[in-house]
Structure formats: structure tokens, C-alpha cells
């Protein structure tokens, strides 16, 4: 019934390009003088459209900073960031806010749902605020994909953690963003609920053509991705295609042996 929505990607910014987001020679430094910290050190990366990318690396290696820079939440010190066809470095805050609102979705570790609203109201809230009408057929398909049909009238307190995160995923998907960023989206969930949410993120890539980028420490979570990027000391040091949890774990152990964990 929901297969009628044939091309969910049509109409997005830069919909024709194979790269959803791109970093070129990105440097991000915090502070100055003796307290200066280089969080990203000349990072080049292409995030493929319609793929699931995981970002891994030791604590403090720059994962969140890279995600925030790619999402236009943080301003780079030097280098360029493109989202779709738009060069975002140098954009004024107003245009950046609009770009984030219209083209980027977020899923955080804490679900960030409004307790007084039902699941459905939470899902459509960003569109309501933006004065956009939800596309009913698309919303239907999203609700179906994340398995929330029977829970739409429930408030967050009446839902399990996994279900709440599925509402947050549906909220991100509902606006049909060009790219969704997740910062440890399963960090607050037990392994069963985490697996469920990761399964839905995977489905949103496979069935809805969504582009997903997720920061994680968890090899099992990373194994849901098509590609894993490894950061160490603010640099992109390695990547892995079609990962399995064992492969990711082995790679992490190799990094440990090199003394790269902080
Ligand atoms: N606002 C800030 N001010 C100063 N330094 C910062 C700031 N944000 C991050 N840093 C520093 O930049 C570096 C990278 O931080 P970042 O949060 O990106 O790492 P991470 O890999 O996401 O770490 P974790 O896995 O612990 O979340 C760290 O050394 C951190 O201390």
C-alpha cells in the first residue's frame, strides 16, 4: 500500500549528486595559544548518498566534531563543507539554520521528545513549526517503516526507550531530509532495543533511500553501516566497507595496540 511513494528522494537539495556531504581539508580548532586543541586536522571525506556511514574512533578523536561540522552545527576553522550542492562554509547563520531545518535530520542519544505531545504530534512537530504540511503518504510509509502504527496516540512516558527512539527516528525521517546524523543514537538503549532501532535505521536507508551518518563506539552498531570511517587524533586514519562486528572489533584492537586510545 505504501509502495506508491516511488521516489522518496525527489526534490531534495542536490538530489542529483552521489555525494550527500563532503569535507575538504577541514580543520577545527578550539581555543588559542596553549589551550588550543585541534579537534579535526585536515579531514577529507565524502559521504555517499543513500548509504549508511558509521564514524568510529577513540574518545576525543573528533567524531562529534566532524559530525557537527558536516551538519552545519559547528563552524570550521578552515577548509570546506558541502551539503548536497551547497557550500556551507561562509553561510550566514540564518541560511545555515534554514539549510539544517530543510535538509538535515538529527537523532541524538537522548530522545528529545516533548512529553506532553503524542508520538504522532512529536513526529510532525518540526514540520508544524516550519509551517510545512506533512506529506501524508510519506508519513504513512515512515510510520510503517519504524513500526509505530499502534503507538501513534501514546505519549513518550507510555513508550519504551526503544519506541521513543523510533519516534525520534520517524521525526527525523518525516521531513525527508537529505541526510540524517545520529550521535550515538542507541547509546541509551539496551541491546535488544538498540538492535531494533538500528534495524529501522538500516531499513530507512534500504527502503526509503535515506542517507545516514552515525557516530558510535559500538562495533555491533557499526556493523549495520555500509562503511565505517575511523578517526584518531582528529585525522581520518582508516575505513572499512561492508563491516561485520568482528571485523570492527579486530580493527579497534589493532588501534589499541598502536596506543591510539586516550
Ligand atoms: N567546545 C569545545 N571546546 C574545546 N575543546 C573541545 C570542544 N569540543 C570538543 N573539544 C575537544 O576536541 C577534541 C575532539 O572532541 P570530540 O567531542 O569531537 O571527540 P569524540 O571523538 O566525539 O569523543 P567522545 O567519543 O568522547 O564523544 C577533544 O580533545 C575535545 O576535548
Q: Brief description of this entry?
A:
The protein has 262 residues and is α/β, with parallel strands linked by helices.
**Helical residue percent band:** 25-40%
| Global structural class | alpha/beta
Number of domains: 1
The averaged pLDDT comes out at 88
Strand content: 15-25%
List of distinct ligands in this structure: adenosine-5'-triphosphate
Report on the biggest sheet.
6 strands, mixed
> What integer value in Å does the Rg equal?
18 Å
Q: Can you identify the CATH class?
A: Alpha Beta
Question: What overall form do the CA principal axes indicate?
Answer: globular
Question: Would you write up a description of this structure?
Answer:
Keywords: ATP-binding, Nucleotide-binding, Transport. One of its GO terms (molecular function) is ATP hydrolysis activity. It comes from Streptomyces chumphonensis. About 35% of the residues lie in helices and about 25% in strands. With about 260 residues, it is α/β, with parallel strands linked by helices. It has one domain: Rossmann fold (3-Layer(aba) Sandwich). Mean pLDDT is about 90; it is low at about 1-15. Adenosine-5'-triphosphate binds near residues 31, 57, 59 and 64.
Amino acid at each position: 500500500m505504501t509502495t506508491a511513494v516511488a521516489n522518496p528522494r525527489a526534490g531534495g537539495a542536490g538530489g542529483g549528486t552521489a555525494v550527500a556531504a563532503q569535507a575538504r581539508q577541514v580543520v577545527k580548532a578550539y581555543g588559542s595559544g596553549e589551550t588550543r586543541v585541534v579537534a579535526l586536522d585536515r579531514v577529507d571525506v565524502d559521504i555517499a548518498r543513500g548509504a549508511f556511514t558509521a564514524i568510529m574512533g577513540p574518545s576525543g578523536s573528533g567524531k562529534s566534531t566532524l559530525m557537527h561540522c558536516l551538519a552545519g552545527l559547528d563552524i570550521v576553522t578552515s577548509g570546506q563543507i558541502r551539503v548536497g550542492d551547497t557550500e556551507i562554509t561562509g553561510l550566514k547563520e540564518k541560511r545555515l539554520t534554514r539549510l539544517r531545518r530543510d535538509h538535515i535530520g538529527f537523532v541524538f542519544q537522548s530522545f528529545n521528545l516533548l512529553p506532553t505531545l503524542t508520538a504522532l504530534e512529536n513526529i510532525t512537530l518540526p514540520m508544524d513549526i516550519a509551517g510545512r504540511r506533512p506529506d501524508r503518504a510519506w508519513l504513512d510509509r515512515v510510520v510503517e517503516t519504524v513500526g509505530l502504527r499502534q503507538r501513534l496516540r501514546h505519549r513518550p512516558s507510555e513508550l519504551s526507550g526503544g519506541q521513543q527512539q523510533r519516534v525520534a527516528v520517524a521525526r527525523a525521517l518525516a521531513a525527508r531530509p537529505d541526510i540524517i546524523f545520529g550521535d550515538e543514537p542507541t547509546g541509551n538503549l539496551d541491546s535488544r532495543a538498540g538492535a531494533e532501532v538500528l534495524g529501522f535505521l538500516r531499513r530507512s536507508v534500504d527502503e526509503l533511500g535515506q542517507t545516514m551518518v552515525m557516530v558510535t563506539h559500538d562495533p555491533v552498531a557499526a556493523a549495520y553501516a555500509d562503511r565505517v570511517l575511523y578517526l584518531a587524533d582528529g585525522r581520518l586514519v582508516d575505513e572499512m566497507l561492508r563491516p561485520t562486528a568482528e571485523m570492527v572489533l579486530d580493527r579497534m584492537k589493532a588501534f589499541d595496540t598502536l596506543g591510539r586510545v586516550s
